[in-house]
Amino acid sequence: MPDSIPVLLRSIYAKTAQGQQEIASRSLGLSPMARRVLVLVDGKRSGQELSTFVPGNEVSPQLTELLERGCIEAVGTVPAPKPAPSPAGAAASTHAGDDLEALPPPESRSAKEADMARNFMINTVNTIFGQHNRISLVESIYGSKTTEELRHVYIAWAEAMESNAVGKRRLPELREKLFAVL
């Protein structure tokens, strides 16, 4: 079974006729989370992308239930992740914490700027992942009262953004805006 999980997450799913019928009639008695995933299946999203809509990002049970009940079918796969870049290529991609070195000292930022940075980070997490996802990250951001504490949470924020296709694409823009106040 563990070998099937990566395949579940890499597969792209579409609704079957049974899945369309289930959305209209609710006759199969799907669990609420499986129904949520079924509604989000669009023939373009992979299991990994769908996992961002499930608390804890554990979408495998819902996908398995939907597949077993004939509500969805795999219509393609996302290519397997590429191997890590060579050391020469690694120089181009830096650790998220390295970005902070270019910022002014944390004590030079005002309380208002720390509030702005905190709100920006929370809003971007909620926008990219949806509310009620990544709750522990939002709580960590909210609990950070100083700029220095926010900079420690920044690493988790940046890694979360990189784990999502939309977040990864928008990360340079979001980082620039955040760094104006962080």
Report on the architecture of this protein:
- The chain is mainly alpha-helical.
- The chain has 2 domains: 4-77; 94-179, no CATH class.
- It contains 10 helices and 2 strands.
- The chain has a two-stranded antiparallel sheet with strand order 1-2.
- Mean pLDDT is 82; it is low at 86-93.
Q: What about the largest sheet?
A: 2 strands, antiparallel
Instruction: Please give the number of β-strands.
Output: 2
Class based on secondary structure composition and strand pairing: mainly alpha
Name the helicity range. Answer: 55-70%
Low-confidence stretches: 86-93
Shape: elongated
Overall pLDDT level: 82
- SSE sequence, one letter per element: HEHHHHEHHHHH
Number of helices: 10
Identify the strand order in the major beta sheet: 1-2
| Rg result | 20 Å
- Beta strand %: 5-15%
Task: Count structural domains.
Answer: 2
CA-CA gap between termini? 44 Å
